[in-house]
Automatic annotation (TrEMBL):
TM stretches of this protein: none
Protein name (database record): Xanthine dehydrogenase family protein molybdopterin-binding subunit
Residue ranges occupied by any Aldehyde oxidase/xanthine dehydrogenase a/b hammerhead domain in the UniProt entry: 214-300
Entries under Gene3D superfamilies matching the protein: Aldehyde oxidase/xanthine dehydrogenase, a/b hammerhead (3.90.1170.50), Aldehyde oxidase/xanthine dehydrogenase, molybdopterin binding domain (3.30.365.10)
SMART domains named among the record's database cross-references: Ald_Xan_dh_C
A molecular-function term among this protein's GO annotations: oxidoreductase activity
Taxonomic source organism: Dyadobacter psychrotolerans
Length: 723
């Protein structure tokens, strides 16, 4: 299969059968910033674990091992596109293989925070260039000429004949692997200038598209093992609840049922209990699950409703100062003394991740060894938690990556692989656990719902004081157990240059907890913070009587941001809006990328609001593939539209009540407005692109509605039909 799991040692053994192989990789002596490129032969001699590597066989076939997950964001395309640029090979000649989970070898393999390219692109460029220079040296040695007389192109090394008319000599990379494998990686090569790129920066077709359209791509649910059974689990609808008793008499009447067992899966610092039905098919397991009769013990913890959650958050914001995240000047004193302050509260809802592929995992426990196959963003966390809970050495937990049908942070978690591992150990057989859409939608973890209190004072047309408090669940409290720690993401989404011009500023976290499990969601806290930050910035601009973009520009002493704002104005026709048109804007930053958005709206004859156009300007610095960026921006806008105007996770009596897309409505193609995308061109370091376009959409939309109607929207979601 195209994403078949192969270990380094197995690959080298297989290559040895057909001939020599040239292998090059890097290792991390301290961090990704000081990675050292080294040959596989040297690594073997010194006992060093290589991080990622290139293999070139005598046939000329190039294999690249990718240590990060592919969930649609494009690393399966970007990593080879980067390496091929400096290696000078055709992209079509590269074979990509998912590497197994191995924290020691790779460092973090958590595919989150839009981190893969921005953390590794320089290393990958150097890796490709090192391999190219070694192949050039091998060719030069074969011909007895200077390396400076040689050049690489399309998987060949050519000799430039000086003053001769005949065609240059050439050698295919496959002919050079044996000689190249004996060389030491060079230190004095020169990387290309961006103006010299042939592949990077170009809208090349993705390598994984054919696999995903012809059915050969292996996702989690595609994995099949000999003797594999299938499990469906009826889990307690409230985290922390227990199984009091269960009746499986009707379940055993269904053909194919093999086991009915009680299970517990780890969820951060606690467990979720349930009953697993194991059968010879997924259908039988699910039917057996439906036939169960379970009595739950849900005593000892609160069963909250959504209304009570937000009521408590609002009360906390009115009565508590919270923990200081950032403080400068005398913001609180100025605001308290002002008779003209703005003091407003914003609310953002809990959200479900809604991946196209629901949770699933295949596990096979054997003696002291556990092997897992599944759609996971974070093999590191899977290994860590299972090792502790099941008392298995980390090196005995093998995590095989598959393609992911969407991730959005939900699959960067350990609960569903742990559950599969526990069931496999109990039944002593390989098992695939598949969650239904209803399981997926109601079990969580969810994006936390958060409320914000924003206070400010305008003086002489500029911000004199700015105070911001957030009250919502801190995901790191779940992970670390440190309940009194300030949320490290309290300012996520806020533009850092504001710190220079807003002299009196206070950003605070008001600790808030519920039994509802929460975790990362696309763009993490920026997805909610951005709504509060940029909606309030618009309110301050209105209070100052200034144009929203001019107001932001005046508070941002940063050339890159000024260029981005200029671009936003020019492409959107911001200065030329007509009567009956509402224009709104927002600018946020996360994962080292800044995105500015402009939304244009109008009122329809039936009174509803129509989104006429969205303009997006992204400054992500150095980038790989503009088509991938556009796809990620469009996906972010669609996801942001749903979260702002259509869906939320609601709780009644401590349970999520929206079980499927019938009530948790998703945007349809007819709901999507035209989206025009612009990528800023510069030579700055690379930022992320998978998430940063989501946070500015909601505030840009609600700011546009204010511009059109004069009505401020401070609570999400809202209905475009009834504004």
């Amino acid at each position: 299969m195209n994403n078949k799991q192969v270990s380094r040692r197995d690959f080298l053994k297989a290559s040895a059968v057909s001939g020599a192989v040239f292998s090059l990789g890097f290792y991390l002596p301290g961090s990704a910033n000081n990675a050292e490129i080294i040959s596989v032969a040297e690594a073997e001699n010194y006992g060093i674990e290589l991080n990622a590597w290139i293999h070139i066989e005598t046939s000329g076939k190039v294999t690249i091992f990718s240590h990060r997950s592919e969930m649609g964001q494009g690393v399966y395309q970007a990593i080879p596109q980067i390496i091929a640029e400096e290696l000078e090979v055709n992209l079509a000649d590269i074979h990509v293989v998912f590497a197994k989970g191995n924290l020691k070898r790779y460092g973090s393999q958590n595919t989150g925070g839009s981190s893969t390219i921005r953390e590794f692109y320089k290393i990958l460029l150097n890796l490709g260039a090192s391999a190219r220079e070694m192949l050039l040296q091998a060719a030069a040695g074969s011909w007895g000429v200077s390396k400076s007389e040689c050049y690489a192109q399309g998987g060949y090394v050519f000799h430039k004949p000086s003053g001769r008319i005949e065609s240059p000599k050439r050698l295919h990379y496959g002919q050079l692997v044996e000689a190249a494998s004996k060389l030491t990686p060079p230190k004095d090569y020169v990387l290309k200038k961006r103006s010299e790129y042939k592949l990077v920066g170009k809208p090349l077709l993705r390598l994984d598209t054919p696999f995903k359209t012809n059915g050969t791509a292996v996702f989690g649910m595609d994995k099949v093992l000999p003797g594999m059974l299938y499990a469906a689990v009826e889990r307690n609808p409230r985290l922390r609840g227990k199984v009091k008793s269960f009746d499986d008499s009707q379940t055993w009447k269904i053909p194919g049922i093999k086991h009915v067992i009680k299970v517990k899966m780890v969820v951060f610092d606690t467990y979720r209990e349930g009953i697993a039905v194991v059968a010879d098919s997924t259908w039988a397991a699910m039917q057996g699950k439906k036939a169960l009769k379970i009595e739950w013990d849900d005593s000892g913890f609160e069963h909250l409703n959504s209304e009570e959650i937000y009521k408590r958050q609002n009360l906390a914001l009115q009565t508590q100062e919270g923990l200081s995240f950032k403080s400068q000047g005398e913001a609180s004193e100025i605001i308290s003394a002002s008779a003209n302050k703005i003091d407003v509260v914003y609310e953002t809802p809990y959200q479900y991740h809604g991946c196209m592929e629901p949770m699933n995992c295949t596990a096979y426990y054997q003696e002291d060894k556990l092997e897992i196959w599944g759609p996971t963003q974070n093999p590191d966390m899977v290994q860590e938690y299972i090792s502790k809970d099941m008392n298995i050495a980390k090196e005995k937990i093998i995590v095989n990556l598959t393609f992911l049908g969407g991730g959005f942070g939900r699959k960067s978690f350990m609960d569903y692989p742990h559950e599969a591992a526990v069931i496999s150990r109990q039944i002593k057989a390989p098992v695939q656990v598949v969650w239904t859409r209803e399981d997926d939608a109601t079990q969580g973890p969810f994006r936390p719902g958060i409320s914000y209190r924003c206070e400010g004072v305008i003086k002489d047309g500029k911000i004199d004081a700015f105070k911001y408090r957030m009250a919502g669940q801190n995901n790191m409290h779940w992970l670390t157990g440190k309940k009194d720690a300030v949320n490290g993401s309290t300012s996520e989404g806020f533009l850092k240059p504001y710190y220079e011009t807003i002299k009196n500023l206070s950003i605070r976290d008001v600790p808030f907890a519920t039994p509802i499990p929460t975790m990362w969601w696309r763009s993490v806290y920026a997805s909610t913070n951005g709504f509060a930050f940029e909606s309030f910035m618009d309110e301050l601009a209105a209070d100052a009587g200034r144009d929203p973009l001019d107001f932001r520009r005046a508070h941002l002493n940063d050339e890159r941001l000024h260029l981005l704002i200029d671009k936003m104005e020019n492409v959107s026709g911001w200065k030329d809006k007509k009567k009956g048109e509402g224009y709104g804007t927002a600018i946020t930053e996360c994962f080292s990328t800044t995105v500015g958005e402009v939304v244009k709206v109008s009122r329809q004859a039936d009174g509803s609001i129509k989104i006429d156009q969205v303009w997006v300007v992204m400054d992500c610095g150095w980038y790989v593939n503009p088509d991938t960026i556009r796809a990620q921006i469009e996906g972010s806008i669609v996801m942001g539209l749903g979260a702002a105007t259509m869906h939320e996770v609601r709780f009644i009596d401590g349970k999520a009540v929206d079980t499927n897309f019938s009530t948790y409505q998703m945007p349809r193609i007819t709901d999507i407005p035209p989206i025009q995308i612009h990528i800023m061109e510069n030579d700055e370091v690379a930022g992320g692109v998978g998430e940063p376009a989501l946070p500015p959409f909601a505030p840009a939309l609600t700011n546009a509605i204010f511009d059109l109607t004069g009505k401020r929207i401070r609570k999400l979601p809202f209905s475009l039909a009834s504004v």
